[in-house]
């Protein structure tokens, strides 16, 4: 696997043969060290300075309350203190495009990338004062991800410039409306969520790839999805109840988008991953503020570091796209 080749401090990992990890749903390489290795060291991906590491083994806990309680009981620093493991070095000098960058977690991702030395392209429908205040940010407004024309215009504005190293498809929509059999379903809102959260990343990515705006090879496409898109986990998180049909269905579709894009973009040397950013205290999740504390919701600044830490670890795999929980770095089953 070319995506795994490279030198890393004291170890050089070379893929010898492909091995399909059926539980994780993607292929990874058998690793062989030609020098004594230290656990946690990584091969270098084609993106300069970006550490490409295989996803951690094992799945994260589906019960959010139990997951956070276990993390506190065990003193899990990855969950409780991201700064203790955070490695932002990959961002220095990288060109990072964030959609939905004018507020919420998107704004925090843009701020964090700029703070760590990245050249940020903030794409949004309407700019905000907070986004404009970020140093070294290029704002492209009028980017409505439900419009193919708007996404193509975004690509046109970037054509001929240095390529984007990392595209973060973050723009999302989660309305505070009833969406179950008891309170009533809202099909119009369901379709709107699909259009923004599932088809939106496809429109943006396709437009950028077509115009040659993403680095090839070495670029990364990161889809900010949600653990809510795990079909298997509905048996735990929605046990004996439905609810938020549009949210869960559109996130599952967004995950499928990422998996398919990973297959098509791999030959171009572009890695793709689906990331659950964790539970963040944003305007979009405010309707759940009564469970913020018990489920370990964090401020967006912390959530952004968690996401950026995992983006730095993303690299080309032999097949598939990992679905990672940025709270603990473990996998989520599709």
Structure description:
The structure is a single chain. The protein has helices at residues 64-74, 77-80, 104-115, 129-132, 148-158, 187-210, 234-237, 245-265, 300-313; strands at 6-8, 11-21, 26-33, 43-44, 51-52, 95-99, 119-123, 137-140, 166-169, 220-224, 271-276, 323-325. It has 334 residues and is an alpha/beta fold. It has a seven-stranded parallel sheet with strand order 8-7-6-9-10-11-12, with helices on both faces. Helix 3 packs across helix 9 (300-313). Residues 1-51 have low confidence and may be disordered.
Task: Chart the SSEs and their pairings.
Elements: E1 6-8, E2 11-21, E3 26-33, E4 43-44, E5 51-52, H1 64-74, H2 77-80, E6 95-99, H3 104-115, E7 119-123, H4 129-132, E8 137-140, H5 148-158, E9 166-169, H6 187-210, E10 220-224, H7 234-237, H8 245-265, E11 271-276, H9 300-313, E12 323-325
Parallel strand pairs: 6-7, 6-9, 7-8, 9-10, 10-11, 11-12
Antiparallel strand pairs: 1-2, 2-3, 4-5
What integer is the average pLDDT?
85
Report the sheet-strand fraction: 15-25%
Low-confidence stretches: 1-51
* Biggest beta sheet attributes: 7 strands, parallel
In angstroms, what is the radius of gyration? 19 Å
The total beta strand count reads 12
For this entry, give a set of tags.
single chain; 334 residues; alpha/beta; three-stranded antiparallel beta sheet; 9 helices; globular; disordered N terminus
């Amino acid at each position: 696997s070319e995506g795994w080749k490279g030198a890393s401090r004291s170890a050089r990992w070379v893929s010898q043969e492909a091995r399909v990890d059926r539980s994780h749903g993607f292929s990874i390489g058998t690793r062989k060290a030609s020098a004594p290795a230290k656990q946690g060291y990584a091969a270098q991906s084609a993106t300069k300075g970006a550490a490409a590491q295989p996803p951690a083994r094992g799945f994260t806990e589906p019960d959010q309350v139990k997951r956070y309680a276990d993390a506190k009981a065990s003193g899990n620093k990855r969950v409780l203190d991201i700064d203790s493991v955070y490695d932002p070095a990959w961002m220095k000098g990288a060109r990072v495009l964030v959609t939905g960058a004018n507020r919420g977690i998107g704004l925090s991702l843009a701020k964090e990338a700029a703070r760590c030395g990245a050249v940020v392209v903030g794409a949004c429908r309407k700019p905000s004062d907070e986004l404009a205040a970020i140093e070294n940010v290029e704002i492209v407004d009028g980017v409505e991800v439900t419009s193919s024309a708007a996404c193509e215009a975004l690509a046109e504005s970037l054509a001929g410039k240095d390529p984007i190293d990392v595209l973060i498809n973050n723009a999302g929509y989660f309305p505070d409306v009833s969406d179950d059999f008891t309170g009533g379903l809202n099909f119009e809102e369901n379709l709107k969520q699909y259009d923004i959260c599932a088809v939106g990343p496809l429109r943006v990515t396709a437009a950028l790839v077509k115009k040659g705006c993403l680095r090839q090879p070495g670029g990364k496409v990161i889809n900010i999805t949600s653990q809510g898109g795990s079909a298997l986990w509905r048996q735990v998180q929605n046990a004996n109840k439905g609810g938020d049909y549009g949210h869960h269905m559109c996130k599952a579709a967004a995950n499928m988008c990422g998996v398919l894009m990973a297959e098509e973009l791999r030959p171009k040397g572009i890695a793709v991953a689906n990331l659950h950013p964790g539970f963040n205290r944003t305007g979009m999740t405010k309707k759940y503020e009564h469970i913020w504390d018990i489920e370990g919701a964090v401020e967006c600044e912390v959530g952004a570091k968690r996401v950026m830490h995992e983006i730095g670890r993303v690299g080309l795999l032999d097949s598939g796209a990992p679905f990672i929980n940025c709270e603990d770095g473990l996998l989520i089953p599709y």
